[in-house]
């Protein structure tokens, strides 16, 4: 996979609504809040700050949504990946309740943005979790009970094996749970639509302007090759791609590769046979399969297959057999696109929110699905900057766990850890 500073060669880049072309940062620029990174986190924070009347500038090393935000599976899943019971042990009952509500709100923030800014991003409702063994089914029942006890606002339904073919034309699964509130969308078109709303409302975006250095102090500065942004506050939203930009965060988040292939467009009858209700689907394994149809009926099939920090030699070579294992009906179908990106993993799976020197805020490490969590996290950081720190404080309390060795030794250790989980799963 060859990377340039343009959007990676993917189905999304090939079907984006327009090419972003914001200026490079040249000379001096002044604003209230400067944001490093133009993915969902940075863009969401910028939009919320604009609502609060702040002057913002987003500084992106490549193109808006160049990172995970423009490459992901487009699966719209509310809530955080972390285990809420473990989180409660760290932050108490009220803190856990706040995080739970944030999780529910996370999906609503996305929907409100799509509506408010009239963003065309192929939004579809319906999300199916599938079971491959009895343990998954037991978890589903526990999960549904828990949702009911907590007055979860969206309809969810257990799907027994005999009814599963109404949703997924594969023999691999023995049950499922549908969530009618979640769904799927075109993530790159969502993010570039949100970015356009920033500029329409007076915010600034600089593309192909990598922040090389951050000068902390009362008036922090972001320094790029040809310019400087002077701000009162800074938000670091580079997540897995931030790497060494801020030495205090290096090694706190581990970049884990996830990859997707897109077939040629399928006939209407084949698409209907594979995914008749047009929902997004994912299984329950650590190295899970996730897939859905695109608006032009391609199968977008993804898998989390790499914790070593190295991309596979052939993404298609890894993912096509997995896809054919689920859908043998796709034998002979052309693979038009293959791509991947990095997810920011935190060791305890809790998103990391915090502050450096009081006026530089950061959030990273969503540890799996992040489309919805980035949106609420952006809002929460923006609210904290404005003075409402209630939700930010809950997450800031949690200590980050770092793997010994920092950024460059972290991945082999994580790969070993993940192998252990995978082994346990195979032996179960
Ligand atoms: C292949 C794949 C599939 C996924 N599937 C799903 C899914 O289906 N559903 C879901 O909910 N989540 C999914 N995720 C996770 C989700 O995409 C991420 O959690 C989310 O997009 C993170 O957004 P972000 O804005 O924090 O980071 P990113 O989108 O990675 O953005 C960070 C940006 O910061 C920029 N940057 C970094 N350093 C600098 C610097 N020094 N100067 C300037 N700019 C800088 C980068 O160029 C990048 O554009 C997937 C991720 C991947 C990779």
Search tags:
428 residues; D-Amino Acid Oxidase, Chain A, domain 2; nine-stranded mixed beta sheet; 24% strand; binds flavin-adenine dinucleotide
Structural write-up:
The structure is a single chain. This protein has 428 residues and is an alpha/beta fold. The protein has two domains: 1-123 and 185-252 and 347-397, FAD/NAD(P)-binding domain (3-Layer(bba) Sandwich); 124-183 and 254-345 and 406-428, D-Amino Acid Oxidase, Chain A, domain 2. It contains ten helices and 19 strands. The strands form three sheets. Strands 4, 5, 6, 7, 13, 14, 15, 16 and 17 form a nine-stranded mixed sheet that branches. Strands 8-3-2-12-19-18 form a six-stranded mixed sheet. α2 runs parallel beside α5 (187-200) and α3 packs across α8 (371-386). The longest helix is centred in the first third of the chain and has 33 residues, at 84-116. The structure holds flavin-adenine dinucleotide (FAD). The site of flavin-adenine dinucleotide (FAD) has 43 residues, from α2, β13, β17 and α8.
Task: State the CATH class of the largest domain.
Answer: Alpha Beta
Q: Total domains, how many?
A: 2
Taken as a percent bin, the fraction of beta residues is: 15-25%
Secondary-structure element pattern, one letter each: HEEHEEHEHEEHEEEEEEHEEEHEEEHHH
Count every helix, treating DSSP H or I runs of 4 or more residues as helices: 10
- Provide the residue-averaged pLDDT: 93
Could you state the oligomeric state of the chains shown?
single chain
Q: Fraction of residues in helices?
A: 25-40%
Radius of gyration from CA coordinates: 21 Å
Unreliable residue stretches:
none
Q: The CATH topology of the largest domain is what? A: FAD/NAD(P)-binding domain
Using DSSP, what is the number of strands? 19
CATH superfamily of the largest domain, please? FAD/NAD(P)-binding domain
Calculate the terminal CA-CA distance, rounded to whole Å.
Answer: 35 Å
Outline type = globular
What does the main sheet amount to? 9 strands, mixed
């Amino acid at each position: 996979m060859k990377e340039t500073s343009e959007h990676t060669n993917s189905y999304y880049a090939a079907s984006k609504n327009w090419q972003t072309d914001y200026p490079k940062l040249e000379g001096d620029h002044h604003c209230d809040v400067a944001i490093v990174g133009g993915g969902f986190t940075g863009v969401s924070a910028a939009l919320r700050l604009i609502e609060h009347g702040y002057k913002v500038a987003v500084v992106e090393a490549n193109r808006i949504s160049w990172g995970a935000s423009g490459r992901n599976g487009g699966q719209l899943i509310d809530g955080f990946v972390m285990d809420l019971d473990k989180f409660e042990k760290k932050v108490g009952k009220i803190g856990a309740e706040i995080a739970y509500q944030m999780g529910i709100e996370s999906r609503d923030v996305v929907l409100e943005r799509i509506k408010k800014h009239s963003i065309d991003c192929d939004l579809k409702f319906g999300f199916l979790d599938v079971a491959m063994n009895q343990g998954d089914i037991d978890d589903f029942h526990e999960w549904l009970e828990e949702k009911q006890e907590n007055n979860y606002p969206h309809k969810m339904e257990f799907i027994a094996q005999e009814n599963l073919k109404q949703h997924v034309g594969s023999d691999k699964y023995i049950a499922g749970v549908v969530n009618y509130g979640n769904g799927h969308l075109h993530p790159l078109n969502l993010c570039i639509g949100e970015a356009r709303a920033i500029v329409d409302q007076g915010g600034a975006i600089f593309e192909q302007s990598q922040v090389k250095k951050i000068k902390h102090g009362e008036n922090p500065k972001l320094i790029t090759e040809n310019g400087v942004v002077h701000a009162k506050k800074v938000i670091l939203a580079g997540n897995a791609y931030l790497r060494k930009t801020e030495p205090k965060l290096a090694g706190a988040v581990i970049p884990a590769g996830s990859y997707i292939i897109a077939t040629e467009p399928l006939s209407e009858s084949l698409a209907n046979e594979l995914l008749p209700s047009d929902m997004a689907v994912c299984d329950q394994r650590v190295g899970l399969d996730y897939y859905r149809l695109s608006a032009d009926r391609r199968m977008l099939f993804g898998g989390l297959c790499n914790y070593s920090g190295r991309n596979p030699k052939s993404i298609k070579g890894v993912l096509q057999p997995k896809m054919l294992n689920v859908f043998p009906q796709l034998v002979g179908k052309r693979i038009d696109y293959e791509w991947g990106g990095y997810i920011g993993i935190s060791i305890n799976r809790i998103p990391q929110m915090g502050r450096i020197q009081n006026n530089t805020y950061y959030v990273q490490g969503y540890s799996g699905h992040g489309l919805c969590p980035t949106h609420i996290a952006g809002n929460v950081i923006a609210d904290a900057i404005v003075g409402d720190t209630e939700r930010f404080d809950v997450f800031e309390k949690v200590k980050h766990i770092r793997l010994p060795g920092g950024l460059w030794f972290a991945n082999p250790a994580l790969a070993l850890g993940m192998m252990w989980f995978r082994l346990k799963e195979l032996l179960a």
